Amino acid sequence: MTLKNVTDPKNGPSRRRYEDACGTAHALDLIGERWALLVLRELMLGPKRFSDIRADLPGISANTLTQRLEGLESVGLVQRRRLPPPAAVQVYELTQWGYEAEPIVQVMGRWATRSPAHDPTMPLSATSLMLSFRTMGDPARMIGLNARIGFCIGAETFLVEIADGRMTAERGGIEGADLIFTGPAPAIAGAVYGGVPIEALEAEGALKIEGDRALAAKFVTLFPLPSKAPVLAL
Predict the structure, then answer these.
(1) CATH code at 194?
(2) Domain total for the chain?
(3) Which terminus in the chain has less CB density within 10 A, N or C?
(4) Residue 128 near residue 185, CB atoms below 8 Å
């Protein structure tokens, strides 16, 4: 197998492709560039403006984000459209085929949490947090639980609904929720994945809880992390 340089007419020889018929190799052709898969991840809950994508990926430069969006658009995974007035702004969104990549993100995420080097307390975006709920939720722990749980993270709101052992997590309104978490995504992740007591986060001012506190205590137990992979001694 060889790796072939491909010239981008706008940005020069920045992309490389594997000369391999395997579907896995072609998947890397499509989303193997640095940041490409994370850009897809940030669009999994719906369209976003360029500035919002960049804000949720603080390590990416504007130039690199432009290149990745153009590359993903050229292969049919992302599309652009302009919202109608009064917004009248351009947004990026996944195509139907682009949304089909969510299981890839989920499987990779679950697999990587087994790494001894994985640190669940590192920064993450609101979209990443909601996708982690969709990925790590344990149906057995949800049996008998029926609830609507809202999240206020920055300027965005999200709603998690649990019923009949199933859960959904989407961007949207939180009116009538049984419980509302307000705070940055890393603080919520600290309670869910890092084992940080909710009361400690409240005392620090990092998290605000409104509504059913017993439900809050139950919710943070629904997403068990898999056991760590063994580290072989050298």
Answers:
(1) 3.30.1050.10
(2) 2
(3) C
(4) yes
